[in-house]
Structure formats: structure tokens, C-alpha cells
Design goal:
Layout: E1 5-6, E2 24-33, E3 36-44, E4 48-50, E5 53-55, E6 58-65, E7 71-78, E8 89-97, E9 100-108, E10 118-125, E11 133-136, E12 142-147, E13 156-162, E14 170-176, H1 185-193, E15 199-200, E16 209-212, E17 217-218, E18 223-231, E19 239-247, E20 255-258, H2 269-272, E21 280-288, E22 291-298, E23 302-309, H3 310-320, E24 328-329, E25 348-357, E26 360-368, E27 374-381, E28 387-390, E29 413-421, E30 424-431, E31 439-446, H4 447-451, E32 461-462, E33 471-475, E34 484-490, E35 493-499, E36 513-516, E37 527-530, E38 535-537, E39 540-548, E40 555-562, E41 570-573, H5 584-587, E42 595-603, E43 606-613, E44 617-624, H6 625-640
Antiparallel strand pairs: 1-23, 2-3, 3-6, 4-5, 6-7, 8-9, 9-10, 10-11, 12-13, 13-14, 14-15, 16-18, 17-18, 18-19, 19-20, 21-22, 22-23, 24-44, 25-26, 26-27, 27-28, 29-30, 30-31, 31-32, 33-34, 34-35, 35-36, 37-39, 38-39, 39-40, 40-41, 42-43, 43-44
Amino acid sequence: MIKAKRYSGNPILKPSKRAWEKEAVFNPSVVKDGKAYHMVYRAIGEEQIYHHVNLRLNTIGYAKSKDGKKFGNKKQLITPKHSWEHYGCEDPRVTKLDGKYYILYTALSDYPHSAAGIKVGLAVTSDFKKIEKKRLISHFNSKAASLFPEKINGKITMMITINTDIPPSKIAIASFPAEEAMWSDSYWENWLKTIDDSTLSLLREGNDHVEAGAPPVKTEKGWLVLYSYIKNYKNPPPTFGIEAVLLDLENPLKIIGRTKEPLLVPQADYETSGAVHNIVFPTGALVEGDILKIYYGASDNYICLAETSLKDLLDEMLTVGREPVKLTRYKWNPIITPRPTSNWESKFTFNPAAVYEGGRVHIVYRAMNDEYKSVLGYASSEDGEHFDERLSDPIYTSREDTQKKIDPIYHSCEDPRITKIKDKLYMCYTAFDGKTPTVVSLTSIKVRDFLDHKWNWETPRIISDPVRSDKNTCILPEKIKGNYIFFHRLEHKIWLDSFKDLKFVGGRWLDGEPMMHPREESWDSQKVGIAGPPIKTEEGWLLIYHGLSKHDKKYRLSAALLGLENPGKVLARLEYPILEPETDYENVGDRPGTVFGCGNVIIADKLYIYYGAADQVVAVASCTMNDLLSALIAAKTASNN
């Protein structure tokens, strides 16, 4: 992985004896104009009585250099003049556009500082001698803003981080037809109404934090943006890292590539010890030839420089960090909701199995009534989104003693997965009596009976060890080397087992070997389990799986590619989720923060994934098979390299 190399002369700028920068200098932004390098930076002065409070005032300094390393001619450039910046000016980013220098910075309007008082201000200068204009940009919590160095599609374009102090933060893009629109409250009010359409998806884990870093740098491959990625932000101690993302030149909301690991983390003494220990924060970037210069703040105390090869970085980003594939939710989600007057599905409807047969998508979903009894319901659709058939009675209910309710707060038939093998549909589901460990039950039905709504299910058989909690099970759609292949979840891992037949006699239970584990520091750090049954492709078996984070306790979905002849071998696994709880219906319910798939089908080249949202309703999301397989092939190539 590409790493940035620290300049041997670091720190390149330190606090001085001047009162306004006596405590700290950090978070620099640099622009080159001809042979001169202009730097603006955050400075913290010595403690003083300021507007009747003891305060170390933040202001913005300026320095100049001939080589981009040795800076002098320092002076205080930006100080508080207006009520919206009354208590300080922080973290500037400077961009030259149309012959003027636009300096966006954090403006502090109250003390003690609150989220409501942390906003973005703008200062404009033509020569760094005089500030010619100041404006308040945002009226909402935000910081870390900068302009792109040229107009995009004829518009001034800004990168800004919102909700930095009321996380989760979001790095977003805003475009303005004219300069005046940048400080228009009405513009921002309309922009906020559709904020999700303007947001870059960079957060890997709900417990982490992102903030935009340096102003974007134009390269032949795209806009290169350095940003701060802070792991475990909500669960200290946090780990600060400098990462990079590559955006499309014409559409900066499109991610072309990104780094997989930080370019820099705190290691040097000046990064680990200072005003705030263990911080590296990127606020400046320049490209000179093949060298990317990264200007950053260290330990909220010093200004430092690191460098790396631009070509090597871009090559790696385009190979490893291509644009993440994300599922697109059906705009009329949820597709199945509880029926308040029903005696069997009045409480929850969720976690649906899915099959595509007879030109229709059939889903079998888990349903619960007010007594928390769990049964399975049915609905179908011609296009996979508009469900025009939904039966008024359950199609499957508890059959055996192990599925009968003991405690009224528990349910019995849970989370079905359905696989077609020849002329039968095999359904694995979780059975629970409210007392003993969850077990896996297997039943089947002829395809013809299923399509005719003749619910002639075979007597279910318990196929997992009754003393071990087991669930999330399916059969592979075809035999491998003459054996039936089962996926199931034991000990928070995905296991694989094989059987010559489906009789399960002689005390032989599901077992096998684990083939996919949680990843300790990732979004799937606590549990992993299958979603729907794997889908056969030329590249391998496509597996959609769920992961539970130990950090924020949210369920997300992602994808992996398994060997065709050896499905226990993981050929590729995406580093990021393809669906995570973001909407109200995914975050409000019996289990907030949950997207939990049990079924997937393909119609033409489109993959539809059916999932339970917040253990409350059924929803569907989709992507093209080509996009998902391309991402997995790229991940496979990267891991092989």
C-alpha cells in the first residue's frame, strides 16, 4: 500500500514568540502562484481576557516560501470582525479562482463553543495583503470547506463537511451559479432538503468520522482529494489517518477510486506529542511533477510536510479503490408492512426469502402478531418491485415441538432461505422455542404446488445440533462433487458443510468448517452470515452476506465471490457495505439500524436483494450484476497483487 514519506525537516513551521501564534500553529493550506508558495494556517495565541472570558484565540496566519518547505514573512491575516466569527477563526483552506484567493475557514460565534456556533466563513483577497470581502457561508453546523480551483460545468463548486459536531458527519458537494449564491440562505435551505444526493459515501464504519481535508487537486485521472478519516471517533481512543479519494472531473459526486489504507498515521514525535496527542490532519496539497505534497497539522501544534508519488497513488486508487458499488433502494419502500387488523402479521413483517419462478418474484417473509408468534407470509410481483399479490393467510406455521412457543416474547419460524433444486424448493429456516438454542429446520415443497398455492410442505426436519445455536442457513442450488452444500452461521462465522443426501440420520448435524470470519476493525467486526443463497456466475458463486458491527451494533450487507468448484474458498470480499441503514424505515423499528437480507433474485442483468428493515418491514434494493461482479473482480485482482 502507498504511504507518504515525511519531510526530514519537519516540522516546517512551529509556534513563535508572537502573542497571536505563541501556543500552536497547524492545519496549513498552500497555493502556488508562479514561483511563490502562499500558506494560510491556524494559529492559537496566548491566553487573554477576550470579550470577558479567558480564551486562547484562534486566528489565521500567513506565510510565504520560495520552495514550499521553508516559510517566512509570517503575519496575522484573518481575525474576528463579525458576530458570526466572534470567538475565533480556524482551519483555513485557500483556492485561487478567477484571479482571486478564496479562503474558507471555520467561524466560531459562541463560547463555550457549541455545534450551532460552528459554521463556515469566507474571506477573499487578491494579494494576501488585504482582506477585501468577508461573508458567512453556512447557517448550519459545518466546517472543512474548500473550493475547487476551477468551475465545473460552469459553476463554482465547493466541498464542505456538515454535522461535524453532531455526527455522523457528511462530506458533500455544492455548486453555485454565481459567487453570491455561496452565502445565500435560501440556496443552502434547498440544498439541505436533498443532502443525501450531494453526499460522498466515504464512511466505512458507523463509529468512525470523516472530514474534508485539502482543497481538491486536478489530475488527468480526476479530482484528487485528501481527507481525514478518524477510526473509532465515537469510541475513543480514535485513530487519525490521512486518506485520499479520486472524483470524476465532470461529476465530483462520482467516486472513481479511493485509498484502502491511510497514507499517513501519527508516528513521529511531533505527531504523537503536542497540544492534542496523535493527530495528523491534511489541509493542503500541491502537485509538482510526479510528486504530491501533503501539508498537514501535527498534534494540533505544528505544520508538517509529507510527499508521495502521484502516479503510484493514482494507479493504486484506480485498482484497489474504485467507486464503491451501492444498492439503489426502491423509491416506494417499504414493499411489505404489518397489517394492524391481522391476527398473524399485525406487529412485524420482515426478513424475506425470494425466488424467481414462473415469470414472477415470490417472497416468503417472516410475520409476527401482537403475541410475538412468528409465521411465514407470501407475496409476489411481476417486476420485483410492485407486489400486487399478497395472501391473507400465512403459508407456513409452526410444525414440530421445537418450534412451538414456550415464552410469549419469543417466536418460532424465523428468517427463511429458499433454494430451487430440480422440481423442488428447499426452505431452511431458524426454529426457536424460546428456551433452548436456536436450531435450523429444513422443509421442501414441489415447485408446481408452490406456484399453485397448494402449501403441501414436507414435514420439517431439525438439521443442526440442538445444543449449539445455529441459524442463517441455505443449500447451494447445485451439488458440488456429488454433495449437497450447506451454508450456516455458528459462532458468529459463516460455516460450510457437505452431505451426500438430505436424510440427516444417525446423529449427523450441520457442522463443517468456517469459511468466512468477522473482520476485527471493519464494519462486519462482530458477526457475519449469509443473506440469500449464493448465485452462480462465470466468475464464481456470488454471495450476499450480512455483517454486524461490534462498534455501532448495526447490520449491513455486502458481497463476496466464492470458488465455483470450491465454494468454501473466498476469492474476493468487498471491503465496504453495499447497503447500510440510512433511511427512517431502516432506523425506526423493533431493531433500529438493521438491513438484513434473506433473499435475492436476478431479472435480466439486475440483482434484487430483499431485506428486513429494522426488524419491522420488508424492503428491496438493487444493482446491476455487471457493476457488482466488476467490483469483486477488482477486489480479487488487488488481493492477488
